[in-house]
Amino acid sequence: MGIFTRRNQNVNVQDGAAVATLEVDPALAALTGDYVIDAAHSSIGFTVRHAMVTNVRGAFTEHEGTLHLDGADPARSTATIEVKIASVDTGIADRDAHLRSGDFFDAEAFPLMTFRSTTAATLGGDTYRITGDLTIKDVTRPLSIDLEFNGSATDAYGNERVGFEGSAAILRSDWGLTWNAALEAGGVMVSDKVKLTFDISAIKQA
Q: pTM of the entire structure?
Protein backbone atom coordinates (compact mmCIF):
# COMPACT_ATOMS: atom_id res chain seq x y z
CA MET A 1 0.00 0.00 0.00
CA GLY A 2 1.41 3.36 -1.00
CA ILE A 3 2.62 5.93 1.46
CA PHE A 4 0.09 8.44 0.13
CA THR A 5 -2.78 6.02 0.70
CA ARG A 6 -1.99 4.65 4.14
CA ARG A 7 -4.50 5.47 6.84
CA ASN A 8 -5.18 4.45 10.42
CA GLN A 9 -8.67 3.06 10.96
CA ASN A 10 -10.57 3.77 14.15
CA VAL A 11 -14.01 2.54 15.09
CA ASN A 12 -16.39 4.96 16.76
CA VAL A 13 -19.85 4.20 18.11
CA GLN A 14 -22.61 6.54 16.98
CA ASP A 15 -26.23 5.94 17.99
CA GLY A 16 -25.36 2.39 18.93
CA ALA A 17 -23.74 1.60 15.55
CA ALA A 18 -20.06 1.10 14.89
CA VAL A 19 -18.72 3.54 12.30
CA ALA A 20 -15.23 3.22 10.84
CA THR A 21 -13.32 6.47 10.37
CA LEU A 22 -10.01 7.05 8.63
CA GLU A 23 -7.21 9.15 10.05
CA VAL A 24 -4.14 10.33 8.21
CA ASP A 25 -0.99 8.32 8.94
CA PRO A 26 1.51 10.54 10.88
CA ALA A 27 4.16 9.62 8.29
CA LEU A 28 1.93 11.13 5.63
CA ALA A 29 1.32 14.29 7.58
CA ALA A 30 5.08 14.75 7.95
CA LEU A 31 5.54 14.75 4.17
CA THR A 32 2.96 17.46 3.51
CA GLY A 33 4.59 20.70 2.48
CA ASP A 34 6.43 22.62 -0.22
CA TYR A 35 9.53 21.24 -1.93
CA VAL A 36 12.15 22.54 -4.35
CA ILE A 37 13.58 20.18 -6.95
CA ASP A 38 17.29 19.56 -6.40
CA ALA A 39 18.58 19.83 -9.96
CA ALA A 40 22.00 18.45 -9.01
CA HIS A 41 20.39 15.13 -8.00
CA SER A 42 17.55 15.03 -10.53
CA SER A 43 17.33 14.35 -14.25
CA ILE A 44 14.87 15.09 -17.04
CA GLY A 45 15.64 12.98 -20.07
CA PHE A 46 14.27 11.67 -23.33
CA THR A 47 14.63 8.74 -25.71
CA VAL A 48 13.80 8.84 -29.43
CA ARG A 49 14.19 6.26 -32.19
CA HIS A 50 16.88 7.17 -34.75
CA ALA A 51 17.06 5.85 -38.33
CA MET A 52 14.38 3.26 -37.47
CA VAL A 53 16.89 0.94 -35.76
CA THR A 54 18.35 2.45 -32.61
CA ASN A 55 17.61 4.90 -29.79
CA VAL A 56 19.17 8.26 -29.05
CA ARG A 57 19.09 9.31 -25.41
CA GLY A 58 19.52 12.79 -24.06
CA ALA A 59 18.75 15.07 -21.16
CA PHE A 60 18.13 18.68 -20.28
CA THR A 61 20.83 19.54 -17.77
CA GLU A 62 19.38 22.84 -16.53
CA HIS A 63 15.96 22.84 -14.93
CA GLU A 64 14.15 23.97 -11.81
CA GLY A 65 10.81 23.30 -10.21
CA THR A 66 8.64 23.06 -7.15
CA LEU A 67 6.30 20.48 -5.65
CA HIS A 68 3.51 20.78 -3.13
CA LEU A 69 2.67 17.46 -1.51
CA ASP A 70 -0.55 16.94 0.42
CA GLY A 71 -0.35 13.74 2.42
CA ALA A 72 -3.97 13.91 3.52
CA ASP A 73 -5.34 14.48 0.02
CA PRO A 74 -2.92 13.56 -2.81
CA ALA A 75 -5.29 15.12 -5.36
CA ARG A 76 -4.31 18.50 -3.96
CA SER A 77 -0.63 17.94 -4.71
CA THR A 78 0.93 20.10 -7.44
CA ALA A 79 4.10 20.38 -9.52
CA THR A 80 5.76 23.04 -11.66
CA ILE A 81 8.88 22.51 -13.78
CA GLU A 82 10.83 24.84 -16.07
CA VAL A 83 13.49 23.45 -18.42
CA LYS A 84 16.13 25.46 -20.29
CA ILE A 85 16.02 24.20 -23.88
CA ALA A 86 19.60 25.32 -24.56
CA SER A 87 20.81 22.79 -21.98
CA VAL A 88 19.87 19.82 -24.21
CA ASP A 89 22.67 17.26 -24.18
CA THR A 90 22.84 14.06 -26.24
CA GLY A 91 26.60 13.70 -26.02
CA ILE A 92 27.25 14.95 -29.58
CA ALA A 93 27.77 18.71 -29.98
CA ASP A 94 26.61 18.94 -33.62
CA ARG A 95 23.40 17.07 -32.84
CA ASP A 96 22.74 19.26 -29.81
CA ALA A 97 23.22 22.38 -31.96
CA HIS A 98 20.72 21.00 -34.47
CA LEU A 99 18.19 20.37 -31.69
CA ARG A 100 18.60 23.98 -30.50
CA SER A 101 18.08 25.32 -34.03
CA GLY A 102 14.88 26.35 -35.79
CA ASP A 103 14.51 22.83 -37.20
CA PHE A 104 13.59 21.62 -33.73
CA PHE A 105 13.26 23.63 -30.51
CA ASP A 106 14.40 27.08 -31.75
CA ALA A 107 15.95 27.69 -28.34
CA GLU A 108 16.73 31.35 -29.03
CA ALA A 109 13.09 32.23 -29.67
CA PHE A 110 11.60 29.74 -27.19
CA PRO A 111 14.13 29.30 -24.36
CA LEU A 112 11.90 27.41 -21.92
CA MET A 113 9.84 24.23 -21.82
CA THR A 114 7.35 24.26 -18.95
CA PHE A 115 5.03 21.86 -17.18
CA ARG A 116 2.34 22.98 -14.75
CA SER A 117 0.11 20.38 -13.15
CA THR A 118 -3.66 20.65 -13.08
CA THR A 119 -4.70 17.37 -11.39
CA ALA A 120 -3.14 14.49 -9.46
CA ALA A 121 -4.46 11.00 -8.75
CA THR A 122 -3.49 7.80 -6.94
CA LEU A 123 -3.18 4.75 -9.21
CA GLY A 124 -2.51 2.29 -6.39
CA GLY A 125 0.46 1.35 -4.29
CA ASP A 126 3.22 3.91 -4.65
CA THR A 127 2.18 4.93 -8.17
CA TYR A 128 0.57 8.25 -9.04
CA ARG A 129 -0.50 10.13 -12.15
CA ILE A 130 -0.01 13.84 -12.45
CA THR A 131 -1.67 15.64 -15.35
CA GLY A 132 -0.96 19.13 -16.49
CA ASP A 133 -0.04 21.49 -19.31
CA LEU A 134 3.22 20.99 -21.21
CA THR A 135 4.34 24.02 -23.21
CA ILE A 136 6.97 23.80 -25.95
CA LYS A 137 7.50 26.58 -28.53
CA ASP A 138 4.41 28.38 -27.20
CA VAL A 139 2.24 25.32 -27.90
CA THR A 140 0.43 24.06 -24.79
CA ARG A 141 -1.09 20.59 -24.67
CA PRO A 142 -2.10 18.23 -21.85
CA LEU A 143 0.40 15.67 -20.57
CA SER A 144 -0.02 12.88 -18.01
CA ILE A 145 3.05 11.56 -16.18
CA ASP A 146 2.98 8.30 -14.23
CA LEU A 147 5.25 8.54 -11.21
CA GLU A 148 6.50 6.07 -8.63
CA PHE A 149 7.22 7.34 -5.13
CA ASN A 150 10.73 6.16 -4.22
CA GLY A 151 10.64 7.18 -0.57
CA SER A 152 11.64 9.95 1.81
CA ALA A 153 14.74 10.50 3.94
CA THR A 154 16.79 13.07 5.82
CA ASP A 155 20.14 13.54 4.11
CA ALA A 156 23.56 14.12 5.69
CA TYR A 157 22.96 17.89 5.74
CA GLY A 158 19.62 17.64 7.55
CA ASN A 159 17.50 18.20 4.44
CA GLU A 160 14.21 16.34 4.24
CA ARG A 161 13.99 14.76 0.78
CA VAL A 162 11.43 12.90 -1.31
CA GLY A 163 12.10 11.03 -4.52
CA PHE A 164 9.98 10.18 -7.56
CA GLU A 165 10.69 8.59 -10.92
CA GLY A 166 8.40 8.31 -13.89
CA SER A 167 7.83 8.57 -17.60
CA ALA A 168 5.46 9.72 -20.32
CA ALA A 169 5.23 9.30 -24.08
CA ILE A 170 4.44 12.14 -26.47
CA LEU A 171 4.26 12.78 -30.21
CA ARG A 172 6.67 15.63 -30.83
CA SER A 173 4.62 16.78 -33.82
CA ASP A 174 1.83 17.75 -31.40
CA TRP A 175 4.14 20.54 -30.21
CA GLY A 176 5.27 21.62 -33.67
CA LEU A 177 8.52 19.61 -33.72
CA THR A 178 8.11 18.20 -37.20
CA TRP A 179 11.58 18.19 -38.81
CA ASN A 180 12.57 14.89 -40.41
CA ALA A 181 14.49 13.31 -43.25
CA ALA A 182 13.49 10.36 -45.39
CA LEU A 183 15.71 7.27 -45.49
CA GLU A 184 16.62 5.62 -48.78
CA ALA A 185 15.47 2.23 -47.50
CA GLY A 186 12.18 3.69 -46.31
CA GLY A 187 11.08 5.28 -43.08
CA VAL A 188 12.39 8.47 -41.50
CA MET A 189 15.45 9.65 -39.59
CA VAL A 190 13.69 10.59 -36.33
CA SER A 191 10.56 8.99 -34.88
CA ASP A 192 7.59 11.14 -33.94
CA LYS A 193 7.19 9.30 -30.62
CA VAL A 194 9.42 10.49 -27.79
CA LYS A 195 9.69 8.96 -24.32
CA LEU A 196 10.22 11.44 -21.51
CA THR A 197 11.82 10.30 -18.26
CA PHE A 198 11.90 11.97 -14.87
CA ASP A 199 14.05 11.16 -11.84
CA ILE A 200 13.30 13.75 -9.19
CA SER A 201 14.81 14.48 -5.81
CA ALA A 202 13.17 17.38 -3.96
CA ILE A 203 14.03 19.14 -0.71
CA LYS A 204 11.36 20.24 1.75
CA GLN A 205 11.29 23.96 2.52
CA ALA A 206 11.12 25.30 6.06
A: 0.86
